[in-house]
Amino acid sequence: MNNSVENRFFGIVCGALLVFVAPLFVLFLFLSSERADKEIRDHISVLLVANAQALAKPLWDLDEESVTQISATVVSQGAIVKVEVRDQSGQLDVSQSTIPRSFDGKLVQVSRAIIYNTVAGPKNLGSISVYYPALGLFSGLKQEEVVFISIFIFAVLTVFGTALIGNRFFVIQPLMRLTAAIEATRQLGSRHHVDWQSNDEMGRLARSFNEMQTKLESEEKELKLAHRRATDIYNLTPAMLFSLDEEDRITAVSDYWLLATGYSRAAVIGRNFANLVTSSTRDKFVRRRRAESGMAVTVKFVCLDGRTMDVLIMESEAGAGAHDRLSLSVMTDVTELKASEDRNHRQAITDHLTGLLNRQGFEVVLDNKIAAADAAGQELACLFVDLDRFKWINDNMGHAAGDMALIELVERLKTHLAPSDEAARLGGDEFAILLPAKDAEKRAKAMCEQIASIFETPFAPDMHLSASIGIAIYPHHAATAAELLQKSDMAMYAKKRDGKNGAQLFDKAMLDRARSRAEIEANIEAGLAENWFEAFLQPIVNLNGRGIAGFEALMRLNHPHKGLMPPAEIVSVAEETGKIVRVGNVIMEKAISNLAKISRISGMQDTYLAINFSPLQFEPALPARLAAIVGRHGIRPERIVVEITEAVLMHDNPQIRMIVTELRRFGCRIALDDFGTGYSSLSYLNRFPVDIIKIDQSFTRAINDGDDEVRQKSRMLIEGITTLSHKMNCTVIAEGIETEEECRTLHQMGLDYGQGYLFHRPQHAAALIEELMAPQSAVARAS
Prior knowledge:
The chain is of the alpha/beta class. Helices cover 52% and strands 20% of the residues. Helix 10 (390-397) packs across helix 11 (399-414).
């Protein structure tokens, strides 16, 4: 410390001299040198003026001897060591020098032109140049300045020496005594005091150190007493306590720990604690202890008698730093609690009905199966199984029968599963099966055939089931667990749309369809929010005279960038997502509003409006909503025709029957759309209050088919439907009329009305109103 503090003080003082004194000294020398140089230059300037005049006449006469004498006189003057005289013509060049041969310094040149006044005027004859040695920093010092500098340096050195001596006596000496006391305390263990008395900072430091030593001595006594008490508490506490050092070696254990584990203290002190843990949980303990301070970890501990305990270890740090880490840990036997948690976990990831994994358990297993497939260099097939008609069984035979069918299905399925396979019930009637194999696609197709054989035998009398299965293969179709399940699900829905009861392997086209569907769904939502939906109208005309009898409202989505979008896809997606109700309400509101505008045109006061309704739109609030809209626009209820398809009637839903009846009672007419394309169509004419029958356009196109048999059968069907409908007081409308020949044939068959591109295309209400108000439409309106 002595050398260190003194060296630092010496360095500080020297640094101060270099930073503050040295620059001032250099500046002083520089100014002195500049002053001396200026004096020499002034003297030489005066000398040059005089000698230039003296040299003018000799140089004019080219008197070299006189020039040489004058040059010698100049070179003997003061600091000048060299003179050069040259005339302009170069005939005379005189040089005088007193420079010693040993001189290697820098010379400073001063020149002046030699001017001679002739009759013709002043004339430049040549020049005189003198040289003198360049002055250094010390060259320009005068004697008194040298004396001043000497006194200044002596004063600085005196102050410097005095500071070093004062620092030695008043700083270094007390620090040395303090250091000696600290070293004695460290080596001997006793609390030495510093013998130093003064009223300055060193004195206060010595007093503080002595007080600290006294206090530490008192605290050491208290710590020893506390250590004895802590040891007694450590051993008497009824808990399994132990301590580890930084290398995970046991440094202490409580008596209760020894009693619970069966070990003796001598047998475990110094042993690595990880060696007392089973190999299956050893790495877990080591990683957690290295990664966390104050860890909590559950491991399996091996007792002396070979018993294995599930123990929860709670650790708290008792030391600091990476190389003196000590810990105090409590070990709790949680064997029974762990067994209970395992039971609860199994119940949480297991389907209570079938005993298979549930969705949560399946997602965990799926991740593990993918990791295992990667490790084994295998593929993994995921089969997404959805039962067909299972909802019908629940609705008609009861949920108990449905549960029994699911249990029986799982029992049959288990006979076809290999030990490496995994099956899960994802919910309801949805199942998933994982099949690891080298050729997973081949294995999946074989499993699908086995699953199909399961359904050959009824699950109960009159209980026949089938399944739609989607297949996705990892890693060909998916890179993650979620993606694999999603794509097998997409493949299953693709099979559902294609007719159910079978298997479908995923292909990329399904993704395109899914993206397209998602885009349509987004457009529907945006269309509802941004008012993109429009109610286009297509006139329905009387086949006898072509007069307009009514209009059919057709949904259109007018995208701001894509224009009009295909309505069939929009309706399909809207029905799947349940947004068809909101879309239908918008179209109904706009269509009735358009009818109110058309009604202001002469001859259009009695035309009707036909509105298509999806089965999902038949909500209890529909009649009231429709009544409110027609009332607001002043439309008579009989001018509204509610168009329903056979799909609505096939539900045979009492609520739908009630709503249709209520709409009929309100005054609206009921039209059966696309008649003849479903099942048992004729029975609906008797069971429902139908006013209008709309014959599907497929029949209209077939009445003039090139095949005689097809043409004859189509005409017979249309004539039969028309005759039956008229006898039941129903109006008949033909859809999709595109040629005059079709129109003429249908009129001859006795049909009442028709609609199609032959008469009018669906168009925006504003364009239709403009067309109806044109002069050429007057005849059509009048008829």
